[in-house]
Specification:
This protein is mostly helical and 182 residues long. It has 11 helices and no strands.
């Protein structure tokens, strides 16, 4: 049965099953299959977390996880429309910090992730005070608390790289703290 599944992984559910059956599969076959089906799991945050966890001793799979994170549309996503006219409901926040417990990013990648965060902080600064005053705010499914926590943890975890290479690092951290207090 596992041989058949290995031969035809074409759905997210198959990837989950293989990961759950990893103790019964040769590691090289599992890793090869996970790399081959990258397009299936790269935009699923939960599978990215799982891939990061199982990739600890597999550099090629770690590289695939880094690529998935760097290309992720969910990373730093606020759901706030660029013009401030509304908010899209997000079902979860992509926690880069969970990935970083297993996968190391280069300084250049950390800086790239930081720069991608800045527009999201700008949206939060601009629109969060407005949305918190809105009569329907209590009915929003996302108050951005978790996202701001993830951002803060990322900034502090990578402080040595960011403080040395980004002149606006301290200001960015202060801006985020200000938004959290509003």
């Amino acid at each position: 049965m596992l041989r058949n599944l290995l031969a035809q992984v074409d759905q997210l559910a198959h990837v989950y099953v293989l990961l759950n059956m990893r103790g019964y599969l040769p590691a090289d076959k599992l890793f090869d299959k996970m790399l081959a089906c990258y397009d299936l799991w790269r935009s699923d945050e939960n599978l990215c977390y799982a891939m990061a966890y199982v990739s600890k001793k597999h550099p090629a799979l770690q590289a695939a996880v880094r690529k998935a994170v760097l290309e992720s549309k969910a990373l730093w996503e606020t759901g706030i429309h660029a013009d401030g006219s509304g908010v899209s409901v997000l079902n979860q926040d992509f926690d880069i910090n969970r990935i970083q417990t297993s996968v190391a990013f280069s300084s250049e990648e950390i800086i790239d992730l930081y720069r991608r965060m800045l527009p999201s902080i700008g949206l939060l600064e601009q629109y969060l005070p407005k949305w918190r005053k809105h009569s329907d705010y209590e009915f929003l499914f996302n108050d951005w608390t978790e996202l701001m926590y993830i951002m803060t943890r990322f900034l502090k975890k990578n402080e040595s790289i960011l403080a040395e290479n980004q002149a606006d690092y301290a200001d960015t951290l202060a801006r985020l703290e200000d938004v959290k207090r509003q």
